[in-house]
Design brief:
The complex is a heterodimer of chains A (112) and B (113).
Chain A (H helix, E strand, L loop, with lengths): L3 E4 L2 E4 L5 E7 L5 E7 L5 E9 L2 E4 L6 E3 L9 E3 L8 E8 L7 E2 L3 E5 L1
Parallel strand pairs in A: 2-11
Antiparallel strand pairs in A: 1-3, 3-8, 4-5, 4-9, 5-6, 7-8, 9-10, 9-11
Chain B lengths: L3 E3 L4 E4 L4 E7 L7 E6 L6 E6 L3 E5 L2 E6 L4 E6 L8 E8 L8 E3 L3 E6 L1
Parallel strand pairs in B: 2-11
Antiparallel strand pairs in B: 1-3, 3-8, 4-5, 4-9, 6-7, 7-8, 9-10, 9-11
Chain lengths: 112, 113
């Protein structure tokens, strides 16, 4: 079954803790993306990676970090420097840059 | 000005009618555009993409692109209550920002029986 998986579905953390969100794809896609969605808002790009071992900042990268050591995996770390981390986090992938993106089911992060 | 802007919603149509969703973009370098459907609490689902000027049809959905007017639209024919969702328009940036997909804020569509 090809697709994008994100885990966990719900995540609760205390303020000041770093947390890592998982994203895995078995579509053999080169490009992967992380977005954040706040209630009633559109999607905002955090980081994207066009190829293994390379990634670029999106529009709201401050307080986040990523790695792309394997083609299939693009984990996102939400650090304690992120001032308002509670949100719905979405991972996506595309065959290559500029083509249609497909989304995983998302992770809802709540930080209190 | 937002890079991708969708017509203000929410939009309400009766079952069986045509729903028309519109989107404008400011980056003339943008080449490809996408429409996603997002049900409440779920992740976006790709329903249409369009790269060339003109119309593209897929079942009850038709995407229209007019690069001269920087305008993208989605028509949903024979609307069903199951089409009730938020629809997101997105376009890839051109130039040095190539690779970044920018989303509009979304239009909430309600199809009432």
């Amino acid at each position: 079954d090809g697709g994008i998986t994100q885990s966990p579905k719900y995540l609760f953390r205390k303020e000041g803790q770093n947390v890592t969100l998982s994203c895995e794809q078995n579509l053999n896609h080169d490009a992967m993306y992380w977005y954040r969605q706040d209630p009633g808002q559109g999607l905002r790009l955090i980081y994207y990676s066009q190829i293994v071992n390379d990634f670029q900042k999106g529009d709201i990268a401050e307080g986040y970090s990523v790695s792309r050591e394997k083609k299939e995996s693009f984990p996102l770390t939400v650090t304690s420097a992120q001032k308002n981390p509670t949100a719905f986090y979405l991972c996506a992938s595309s065959a290559r840059t500029g083509t249609e993106q497909y989304f995983g089911p998302g992770t809802r992060l709540t930080v209190t | 000005q937002k890079e991708v802007e969708q017509n203000s919603g929410p939009l309400s149509v009766p079952e069986g009618a045509i729903a028309s969703l519109n989107c404008t973009y400011s980056d003339r370098g943008s080449q490809s555009f996408f429409w996603y459907r997002q049900y409440s609490g779920k992740s976006p689902e790709l329903i249409m993409f369009i790269y060339s000027n003109g119309d593209k049809e897929d079942g009850r959905f038709t995407a229209q692109l007019n690069k001269a007017s920087q305008y993208v639209s989605l028509l949903i024919r024979d609307s069903q209550p199951s089409d009730s969702a938020t629809y997101l328009c997105a376009g890839y940036a051109g130039g040095t920002s190539y690779g970044k997909l920018t989303f509009g804020q979304g239009t909430i569509l309600t199809v009432h029986p």
